[in-house]
Specification:
Blueprint: H1 14-36, E1 51-61, E2 66-69, H2 74-91, E3 97-98, E4 107-112, E5 124-128, E6 132-137, H3 140-153, E7 167-176, E8 182-188, H4 196-208, E9 213-220, E10 223-224, H5 233-236, H6 253-265, E11 269-276, H7 281-286, H8 315-331, E12 336-340, H9 349-365, E13 369-373, E14 386-389, H10 393-401, E15 405-408, H11 411-414, H12 436-440, E16 456-463, H13 471-478, H14 481-490, H15 498-514
Parallel strand pairs: 2-3, 2-4, 4-6, 8-9, 8-16, 9-11, 11-12, 12-13, 13-14, 14-15, 15-16
Antiparallel strand pairs: 1-7, 5-6, 5-7, 9-10
Bound molecules: ligand TNX.
Length: 530
């Protein structure tokens, strides 16, 4: 808290000082009055919604409040239970979930309806008056996104356990829907391994800001992190270490299911990545036959890139990939599988092209849609395949020429592993420093000349973990930048500007504190030390 001790005033200025004292008192009480009547439009929502219409009055959540859902809709019931559990932690109220159509007051109603004209599956509206909070959407995912807004309409302490009320929400209405269909974050669990609970906390953050994709970077030179039953040494040996020589680890298929279920409950699709043909030392060390010389290299615990490659002209390589993608597809309910394809500096270019073409066929054979880093555009892409732009504008343009849609992850803006500035204790800076304003101030649809909004599926912010070892480290790198990337993906361009965002973010700090998040308090957001 601010704790500035004023110097003792000189006698001659006493008169002036007592006047200013009253002026300050007056302003302070005016602010207070404004605070208590704070209307909806003064709340600091991130991402900013399409429209907010304030009204007079307020709804109060009390122990008499109940949550109502459409009769017999189990998905809605699950969401209602999620809301009830969330509210119980802080308020202590045990809000029942009811399955009736009729309510008159003390009601939070979650309603699926197609009468509100939403074309977007994640769109929702919230209407609040003294008696009812009504959240409406076409699809359950829209209701879920609306509940994330509801969280931010409540006092910040709603994020903390066992708090005192009152739990009031100002009256009015909100209409909201996303700008891009793909809004994601990536977590690299290969360079350093993170346990299921850490991944869940990451997912919770992603959900909080209405993102809908979690890209898991599951394999790299330093470790293979997903159990493949037909090739067990991948995890037994290839998962046994990490950057710096620590213990490593891996997800069993049951662990992976637990992650997917947790994400699905939040309407988040998990996208698994097996990076190839480069970034494969952990696999090459586990199975000598995947190397052209049949010799397994040692496990690797450094941070270099570009030195490993699958042997692209061996049949066993494709048998291996078929098995891996097959098992992964079977345990992945989502649409996409990411095949990496970046920085394959040890693969001959022609071999690389043939390799990606073949792997693409394998992905589609198993019923999934392929995503790869922007280098994959060197191959013959199917139109459905998605290209993740990270470094090369030429590659991005090449992908678009092949009618492949883009996920925008420009390293200079969207890489959450970049240091904020030269004093950041964690992170790299090969793509530059990414201060909070730098991360926010860009527009996916004008970032690369020649690429328009129609070419873009959405936005993703990756967190590579060469320097990141704990959930505390993760939080420091992603907060507050993650909230800005979420707003870039969700909110309308016309509503986005740094000044507005900066103020909302500053007011959002108390919510991050209530969420017990270890975040970077940037000078560009508030010049004084908070
Ligand atoms: C580049 S981004 C990589 C990763 C590193 C990252 C570190 C990309 C497709 N490849 O292998 O972890 O830089 O910032």
């Amino acid at each position: 808290m601010k704790n500035t001790i004023q110097p003792k005033p000189k006698d001659s200025s006493r008169y002036l000082i007592s006047i200013s004292f009253f002026v300050i008192l007056f302003i302070a009480s005016a602010c207070q009055a404004q605070l208590t009547s704070k209307d909806l439009s003064q709340l600091n929502l991130i991402p900013i919604p399409v429209a907010i219409t304030p009204d007079v009055g307020a709804f109060e959540i009390t122990d008499r409040t109940a949550i109502y859902v459409n009769k017999g809709d189990t998905q809605l019931e699950d969401i209602a239970n999620y809301l009830s559990e969330f509210l119980q932690k802080s308020t202590g109220f045990n809000l029942p979930v009811k399955n009736v159509d009729q309510f008159s007051k003390d009601a939070i109603s979650l309603e699926l309806t197609n009468s509100n004209g939403f074309k977007n599956p994640e769109g929702y509206s919230i209407n609040i008056n003294n008696d009812v909070i009504k959240i409406q959407a076409n699809e359950p995912q829209g209701i879920f996104r609306g509940i994330q807004t509801l969280r931010q309409l409540l006092p910040a302490r709603i994020e903390q356990e066992s708090q005192k009320g009152p739990w009031t929400i100002a009256s009015g209405s909100i209409l909201d829907y996303p700008q891009y269909e793909y809004r994601g974050a990536m977590l690299d669990v290969s360079r350093h391994f993170f346990a299921v609970d850490d991944v869940k906390r990451f997912i919770h953050f992603v959900a909080t800001y209405k993102m809908n994709k979690l890209h898991l970077h599951l394999s790299d030179d330093q470790g293979w992190r997903i159990e493949i039953k037909s090739w067990p040494k991948l995890t037994e040996y290839g998962g046994s270490t990490e950057v710096g020589g620590g213990e490593g680890g891996y997800f069993t298929q049951e662990d992976y299911k637990e992650i997917i279920d947790y994400a699905q409950e939040r309407y988040i699709e998990v996208i698994p990545e097996i990076d190839m043909p480069g970034h494969t030392n952990a696999a090459l060390a586990s199975y000598p036959e995947l190397n052209c010389n049949d010799e397994a290299p040692d496990l690797y615990t450094g941070t270099e890139v570009g030195f490993s490659s699958f042997c692209t002209d061996k049949e066993v390589t494709y048998k291996f990939i078929d098995d891996v993608i097959g098992e992964l597809a079977a345990i992945t309910p989502g649409k996409y599988i990411h095949i990496g394809g970046d920085e394959s500096h040890s693969t001959d270019k022609e071999d690389y092209i043939q390799f990606i073409n073949k792997v693409q066929d394998i992905v589609y054979k198993h019923g999934k849609t392929m995503i790869g880093w922007d280098e994959i555009q060197n191959a013959q892409l199917r139109k459905e395949s998605v290209t993740q732009f990270w470094a090369s504008e030429e590659n991005a343009l090449g992908a678009v020429k092949q009618e492949s849609k883009l996920i925008m992850s420009p390293a200079k803006k969207a890489y959450m592993d970049m240091q904020y500035d030269s004093n950041s204790p964690l992170g790299l800076h090969w793509a530059g420093y990414i201060e909070v304003d730098t991360g926010y101030n860009w527009n996916p649809s004008s970032y690369v000349k020649g690429i328009t909004k129609d070419d873009i599926l959405g936005v993703e912010a990756p967190l590579w973990t060469e320097t990141i070892q704990t959930i505390n480290d993760i939080e420091y790198m992603i907060f507050p930048r993650l909230a800005g990337f979420a707003e870039i993906g969700w909110s309308q361009d016309s509503l986005r500007n740094w000044e507005s965002y900066k103020n909302r973010l500053l007011n959002h700090y108390e919510r991050l504190e209530a969420m017990d998040v270890n975040f970077y308090k940037s000078k560009v957001v508030a010049s004084e030390k908070l």
